Amino acid sequence: MKYINKENLGKISGLLGNRFFLIAVIVVLIMLSLKQCGDVDHAKAEALREHNNYLASLDSVRVIKNELGELIVEKSAYQLKVSELSNEQKDLIKRLDLNTNGRGTTPKTVIQTVSEYNETITNIKSEVVKDPNGSEAITFNHEPTLPGKNKLKISGKVPYDLNLLRDPADSTKYIASVSPLGTTLTIEQNIDIVTGLYQDPKSKRIMTRVSTTYPNLTFSEVNSFDITDNPEARKALKAARKEFGLGVSVGYGLIGNSNSMSTGVFVGLGLHYTPKFLQFGK
């Protein structure tokens, strides 16, 4: 068995004191640089998020129409942290029976639309019917053909009493009077609404679009927000990180045996370990 002599030990000591120290300094500087780049990217993303929210606070519903003439409305969406949620926004989440603290069942995205439907229907076909008891009523049914999955059906029944009274001024004449009773109205309606979020490729702002093919239906308000700091999502991403991995290693260090030592570049295949707390990113 061979031992490292004093001469080789001196070489190793010199190399460790010079080259390895320099390499260590370079590695530390690289890691600090990467961390600083990560901090700069985070600050830039935060500035863009705040700018998006400022523009969203000034935005209003814009009406667009696609090539088929179907209604589309658009409005900016907020990108909010849990701590930034207003009481009104928290109430919307509670209406969904979900958590508002950013954990568990806290939703990623919430969209609220307020619609208006205005239409005047005239010349509805009606008829007088009589039930087995002899009571009369006016019935009607309105069921227009609508595009897509939309549906509207309005049917009603207006019962009435017809009274004939002798004219006190002329006993040979009668006066008819109609007394309407309780009206029954039945409405069946399906409204096809499509809602989506997208990020504008130029401004990087989050936008909400709502579209419908239902005639005479408009949207007076669109409120939407995206929760960006859900701890559960960050926890899932962190859990998905791998501490061990197999990969190619390239480096510069000591090469040799007990008799002679030198420095040089090496390439190899090996198993590496990186603790999660040293991994950058979310």
How does this model look, in words?
With 282 residues, the chain is α+β, with helices and mostly antiparallel strands. The chain folds into three domains: 6-44 and 241-278, no CATH class; 61-119 and 192-230, no CATH class; 126-190, no CATH class. The chain is 25% helix and 41% strand. A hairpin with a 4-residue loop joins strand 13 (244-256) and strand 14. The longest helix is centred in the first third of the chain and has 53 residues, at 6-58.
Any idea what the shape is?
rod-shaped
Which class do the helix and strand fractions yield?
alpha+beta
Provide the gyration radius in Å. Answer: 38 Å
Distance between the termini: 51 Å
Portion in helices:
25-40%
The portion of residues forming beta strands comes to: 35-45%
For the record, the count of structural domains works out to 3
The helix tally amounts to 3
N to C succession of SSEs: HEEEHEEEEEEEEEHEE
How is the topology of this model organized?
Elements: H1 6-58, E1 62-65, E2 71-76, E3 78-80, H2 87-95, E4 109-117, E5 126-130, E6 136-142, E7 151-166, E8 174-180, E9 184-190, E10 193-199, E11 206-212, E12 217-227, H3 231-239, E13 244-256, E14 261-273
Parallel strand pairs: 3-12
Antiparallel strand pairs: 1-2, 2-11, 4-12, 5-6, 6-7, 7-8, 7-9, 10-11, 13-14
Question: Any key phrases for this structure?
Answer:
single chain; 282 residues; alpha+beta; 3 domains; five-stranded antiparallel β-sheet; 41% strand; rod-shaped
Short recap of the structure:
The protein has 282 residues and is of the alpha+beta class.
